[in-house]
User: Fold this.
Amino acid sequence: MANSETLSLQQQAARLQDRVLGPCDGYQPWLGSVTREPCGEPNRLLIRTASNAYFPQKMTVISLPDRDETVTQAVDAAWEFLEAVEEMDELRARVRVGVRMVELQKLLAVQQDYIAKRDAAAQMAALAPTLAEPEPQSSLG
Assistant:
């Protein structure tokens, strides 16, 4: 009998697995990018749902905006208004006043836009009769 016939199927599979997957290089990415330990064990196949296995997820991010940038810009813009605040209640009151001022400014802008469009429409209506084309006159005579 040949040597492969005397080995069990499990032993043959173990030998094949050792050769196919190669030896362990000791790399442990969950401990950092430069962590390696000497290891002489062969690599083994693991079941994907095994709880003792590490499955990294690599993601590429182009840009992540600074989450506080909007708040920082708002505070910078209103710093003269907020600079004298010493207590949180006073800050809350000033913020409420600031929000009301912004809302009033938006309302005023909408009102001004409405008036401008209304006046433009009225001017167009007033000019409409003078802009109408004259009807052609017949040359029957």
